[in-house]
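Closing statement on the iron/sulfur cluster sub-project.
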Amino acid sequence: MVYSLQTSCVYGPVNSRRLGSSLGINLLPSDVKLCSFDCVYCHYGVTEVKTVDQADSVVHFPSLTDVTDELRQALKSFSDRHERPEYITFSGNGEPTLHPQFSGIVDEVKALRDQYVPDVPVAVLSNSTTVHLPSVREALMKLDRRIMKLDAGDAETFQAVNRPAPSLDLEEIIEGLCHLKDLSIQSAFMRGGVENIGRRERESWIQALERIKPNDVQMYTIDRPSADGRIERVERSILEEIAQEVADRTGVKVRVY
Ligand code: SF4
Protein backbone atom coordinates (compact mmCIF):
# COMPACT_ATOMS: atom_id res chain seq x y z
CA MET A 1 0.00 0.00 0.00
CA VAL A 2 1.20 3.49 -0.88
CA TYR A 3 0.26 6.68 0.99
CA SER A 4 -0.84 9.82 -0.87
CA LEU A 5 1.53 12.74 -1.03
CA GLN A 6 0.91 15.64 1.36
CA THR A 7 -1.15 18.21 -0.51
CA SER A 8 -0.17 21.25 1.56
CA CYS A 9 3.01 22.91 2.84
CA VAL A 10 1.96 22.48 6.48
CA TYR A 11 0.37 19.26 7.73
CA GLY A 12 -0.47 17.51 10.97
CA PRO A 13 0.46 17.64 13.73
CA VAL A 14 1.33 13.99 13.24
CA ASN A 15 2.09 11.72 16.15
CA SER A 16 5.71 10.84 15.49
CA ARG A 17 7.38 7.91 17.28
CA ARG A 18 10.56 9.89 17.64
CA LEU A 19 9.42 13.51 18.00
CA GLY A 20 5.98 13.27 19.59
CA SER A 21 3.39 15.75 18.27
CA SER A 22 5.11 17.18 15.19
CA LEU A 23 3.81 19.88 12.87
CA GLY A 24 5.16 18.93 9.45
CA ILE A 25 6.47 21.28 6.79
CA ASN A 26 6.51 19.97 3.25
CA LEU A 27 8.67 21.89 0.76
CA LEU A 28 8.19 19.42 -2.10
CA PRO A 29 5.65 19.35 -4.91
CA SER A 30 2.32 17.64 -4.21
CA ASP A 31 1.55 16.59 -7.79
CA VAL A 32 4.67 14.49 -8.35
CA LYS A 33 6.99 12.61 -6.00
CA LEU A 34 10.39 14.30 -6.15
CA CYS A 35 13.29 13.00 -4.09
CA SER A 36 16.99 12.30 -4.47
CA PHE A 37 16.35 8.75 -3.24
CA ASP A 38 13.84 6.08 -4.17
CA CYS A 39 14.06 4.10 -0.93
CA VAL A 40 12.84 0.55 -1.18
CA TYR A 41 10.68 1.12 1.94
CA CYS A 42 9.23 4.56 1.04
CA HIS A 43 5.55 4.73 1.93
CA TYR A 44 5.01 7.44 -0.70
CA GLY A 45 5.79 4.89 -3.43
CA VAL A 46 8.15 5.16 -6.36
CA THR A 47 10.07 8.42 -6.87
CA GLU A 48 8.89 9.91 -10.16
CA VAL A 49 11.48 12.70 -10.38
CA LYS A 50 14.75 11.43 -8.91
CA THR A 51 17.18 14.34 -8.74
CA VAL A 52 19.64 16.23 -6.59
CA ASP A 53 19.34 19.32 -8.75
CA GLN A 54 18.08 21.96 -6.34
CA ALA A 55 16.78 24.14 -9.17
CA ASP A 56 15.06 21.42 -11.17
CA SER A 57 12.84 23.37 -13.53
CA VAL A 58 10.40 20.61 -14.48
CA VAL A 59 8.59 20.70 -11.15
CA HIS A 60 6.80 23.30 -9.10
CA PHE A 61 8.15 23.81 -5.59
CA PRO A 62 5.91 25.70 -3.15
CA SER A 63 6.98 29.34 -2.83
CA LEU A 64 8.35 30.89 0.34
CA THR A 65 5.06 32.81 0.66
CA ASP A 66 3.01 29.61 0.30
CA VAL A 67 4.96 28.12 3.21
CA THR A 68 4.90 31.15 5.49
CA ASP A 69 1.20 31.90 4.89
CA GLU A 70 0.20 28.34 5.81
CA LEU A 71 2.53 28.16 8.77
CA ARG A 72 1.40 31.52 10.17
CA GLN A 73 -2.20 30.34 10.04
CA ALA A 74 -1.40 27.00 11.70
CA LEU A 75 0.73 28.53 14.47
CA LYS A 76 -1.77 31.30 15.14
CA SER A 77 -4.45 28.66 15.55
CA PHE A 78 -2.23 26.76 18.06
CA SER A 79 -1.49 29.96 19.92
CA ASP A 80 -5.18 30.96 20.07
CA ARG A 81 -6.01 27.55 21.62
CA HIS A 82 -3.06 27.88 24.07
CA GLU A 83 -1.62 24.69 22.60
CA ARG A 84 1.64 23.88 20.90
CA PRO A 85 3.22 21.03 18.96
CA GLU A 86 6.32 19.40 20.44
CA TYR A 87 8.25 20.01 17.22
CA ILE A 88 8.01 21.85 13.92
CA THR A 89 9.66 19.49 11.45
CA PHE A 90 10.84 19.88 7.86
CA SER A 91 9.95 16.52 6.32
CA GLY A 92 7.13 15.93 3.82
CA ASN A 93 6.98 14.40 0.36
CA GLY A 94 10.73 14.05 -0.22
CA GLU A 95 14.04 15.65 0.71
CA PRO A 96 13.40 19.18 2.11
CA THR A 97 16.89 20.55 1.35
CA LEU A 98 16.22 20.11 -2.39
CA HIS A 99 14.04 23.24 -2.25
CA PRO A 100 16.06 26.02 -3.99
CA GLN A 101 15.20 28.49 -1.18
CA PHE A 102 15.68 26.12 1.75
CA SER A 103 17.94 28.46 3.71
CA GLY A 104 15.61 31.47 3.38
CA ILE A 105 12.59 29.35 4.33
CA VAL A 106 14.42 28.13 7.46
CA ASP A 107 14.90 31.78 8.50
CA GLU A 108 11.21 32.61 7.98
CA VAL A 109 10.00 29.47 9.78
CA LYS A 110 12.20 30.28 12.78
CA ALA A 111 10.88 33.87 12.85
CA LEU A 112 7.27 32.60 12.89
CA ARG A 113 8.16 30.05 15.56
CA ASP A 114 9.66 32.85 17.70
CA GLN A 115 6.51 34.92 17.25
CA TYR A 116 3.87 32.28 18.03
CA VAL A 117 5.42 29.27 19.83
CA PRO A 118 8.85 30.44 21.02
CA ASP A 119 9.85 27.28 22.93
CA VAL A 120 9.10 24.80 20.16
CA PRO A 121 12.22 23.40 18.48
CA VAL A 122 12.48 23.27 14.69
CA ALA A 123 13.91 20.03 13.31
CA VAL A 124 14.68 18.52 9.92
CA LEU A 125 14.42 14.93 8.76
CA SER A 126 16.90 14.83 5.89
CA ASN A 127 18.17 12.00 3.70
CA SER A 128 21.68 13.54 3.80
CA THR A 129 22.08 13.72 0.00
CA THR A 130 22.95 17.43 -0.04
CA VAL A 131 25.04 17.49 3.15
CA HIS A 132 28.29 17.62 1.14
CA LEU A 133 27.34 21.20 0.12
CA PRO A 134 28.67 23.83 2.58
CA SER A 135 25.65 26.10 1.90
CA VAL A 136 23.26 23.32 2.91
CA ARG A 137 25.27 22.52 6.06
CA GLU A 138 25.11 26.21 6.96
CA ALA A 139 21.30 26.18 6.59
CA LEU A 140 21.00 22.94 8.57
CA MET A 141 23.04 24.46 11.42
CA LYS A 142 20.37 27.16 11.87
CA LEU A 143 17.91 24.46 12.99
CA ASP A 144 17.52 23.12 16.53
CA ARG A 145 17.82 19.47 15.45
CA ARG A 146 19.30 17.72 12.44
CA ILE A 147 18.14 14.13 12.01
CA MET A 148 20.08 12.70 9.07
CA LYS A 149 19.46 9.43 7.26
CA LEU A 150 22.15 6.77 6.92
CA ASP A 151 20.77 3.30 6.12
CA ALA A 152 23.98 1.82 4.73
CA GLY A 153 27.75 2.15 5.08
CA ASP A 154 28.74 0.43 1.83
CA ALA A 155 27.97 1.34 -1.76
CA GLU A 156 26.24 -1.95 -2.64
CA THR A 157 23.75 -1.77 0.24
CA PHE A 158 23.26 1.97 -0.38
CA GLN A 159 22.23 1.23 -3.98
CA ALA A 160 19.90 -1.60 -2.95
CA VAL A 161 18.17 0.22 -0.06
CA ASN A 162 18.10 3.88 -1.13
CA ARG A 163 18.25 3.56 -4.96
CA PRO A 164 19.89 7.02 -5.18
CA ALA A 165 19.97 9.52 -8.07
CA PRO A 166 22.87 8.51 -10.35
CA SER A 167 25.31 11.26 -9.34
CA LEU A 168 25.16 10.46 -5.62
CA ASP A 169 28.16 8.93 -3.94
CA LEU A 170 27.93 7.37 -0.47
CA GLU A 171 31.48 8.32 0.46
CA GLU A 172 30.73 11.99 -0.33
CA ILE A 173 27.60 11.79 1.85
CA ILE A 174 29.50 10.24 4.78
CA GLU A 175 32.22 12.89 4.41
CA GLY A 176 29.53 15.60 4.44
CA LEU A 177 28.02 14.12 7.61
CA CYS A 178 31.50 14.15 9.20
CA HIS A 179 31.55 17.93 8.63
CA LEU A 180 28.10 18.54 10.12
CA LYS A 181 28.04 19.27 13.84
CA ASP A 182 25.59 18.21 16.52
CA LEU A 183 23.54 15.71 14.49
CA SER A 184 21.41 12.63 15.01
CA ILE A 185 21.58 9.70 12.61
CA GLN A 186 18.37 7.88 11.67
CA SER A 187 18.61 4.42 10.14
CA ALA A 188 15.92 2.07 8.85
CA PHE A 189 16.52 -1.68 8.91
CA MET A 190 14.86 -4.37 6.84
CA ARG A 191 15.21 -7.94 5.69
CA GLY A 192 13.85 -10.05 2.85
CA GLY A 193 14.52 -9.20 -0.82
CA VAL A 194 16.66 -6.27 0.32
CA GLU A 195 18.39 -6.32 3.68
CA ASN A 196 20.94 -4.36 5.68
CA ILE A 197 21.31 -6.41 8.86
CA GLY A 198 23.93 -8.96 7.75
CA ARG A 199 27.44 -9.01 9.25
CA ARG A 200 29.02 -7.21 6.28
CA GLU A 201 26.34 -4.50 6.05
CA ARG A 202 26.39 -3.90 9.81
CA GLU A 203 30.17 -3.60 9.90
CA SER A 204 30.38 -0.93 7.19
CA TRP A 205 27.48 1.03 8.75
CA ILE A 206 29.11 0.99 12.21
CA GLN A 207 32.45 2.04 10.70
CA ALA A 208 30.67 5.03 9.09
CA LEU A 209 29.18 5.95 12.48
CA GLU A 210 32.65 5.78 14.05
CA ARG A 211 33.76 8.42 11.53
CA ILE A 212 30.65 10.64 11.74
CA LYS A 213 30.47 10.72 15.56
CA PRO A 214 26.78 11.70 15.83
CA ASN A 215 25.18 12.77 19.11
CA ASP A 216 22.84 9.81 18.92
CA VAL A 217 21.49 7.14 16.59
CA GLN A 218 17.83 6.35 16.03
CA MET A 219 17.21 2.81 14.78
CA TYR A 220 13.90 1.49 13.55
CA THR A 221 12.41 -0.99 11.15
CA ILE A 222 9.74 -0.46 8.53
CA ASP A 223 6.44 0.21 10.26
CA ARG A 224 4.17 1.05 7.38
CA PRO A 225 3.33 -0.77 4.19
CA SER A 226 5.97 -0.07 1.57
CA ALA A 227 5.75 0.06 -2.20
CA ASP A 228 8.14 -2.88 -2.43
CA GLY A 229 6.39 -5.98 -1.08
CA ARG A 230 9.67 -7.93 -0.89
CA ILE A 231 10.94 -6.33 2.31
CA GLU A 232 10.02 -7.36 5.84
CA ARG A 233 10.29 -6.00 9.35
CA VAL A 234 13.29 -6.85 11.52
CA GLU A 235 12.67 -8.32 14.99
CA ARG A 236 13.26 -5.90 17.85
CA SER A 237 15.74 -8.31 19.47
CA ILE A 238 17.99 -8.05 16.39
CA LEU A 239 17.78 -4.24 16.37
CA GLU A 240 18.70 -4.20 20.06
CA GLU A 241 21.66 -6.49 19.44
CA ILE A 242 22.94 -4.13 16.72
CA ALA A 243 22.29 -1.11 18.97
CA GLN A 244 24.37 -2.67 21.73
CA GLU A 245 27.24 -3.24 19.34
CA VAL A 246 27.10 0.40 18.19
CA ALA A 247 27.03 1.66 21.78
CA ASP A 248 29.96 -0.59 22.79
CA ARG A 249 32.11 0.41 19.84
CA THR A 250 31.30 4.12 19.50
CA GLY A 251 30.06 5.22 22.92
CA VAL A 252 27.17 6.93 21.11
CA LYS A 253 23.67 6.83 22.59
CA VAL A 254 21.47 4.52 20.48
CA ARG A 255 17.73 4.16 20.72
CA VAL A 256 15.56 1.53 19.06
CA TYR A 257 12.05 2.71 18.08
S1 SF4 B 1 14.35 9.78 1.34
FE1 SF4 B 1 12.34 9.67 2.34
S2 SF4 B 1 10.89 10.51 0.84
FE2 SF4 B 1 12.80 10.06 -0.26
S3 SF4 B 1 12.46 8.02 -1.10
FE3 SF4 B 1 13.51 7.78 0.88
S4 SF4 B 1 11.89 7.49 2.41
FE4 SF4 B 1 10.93 8.31 0.53
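The two ends are 22 Å apart (CA to CA). With this model delivered, the sub-project is considered complete and its resources will be redirected to Aim 3.
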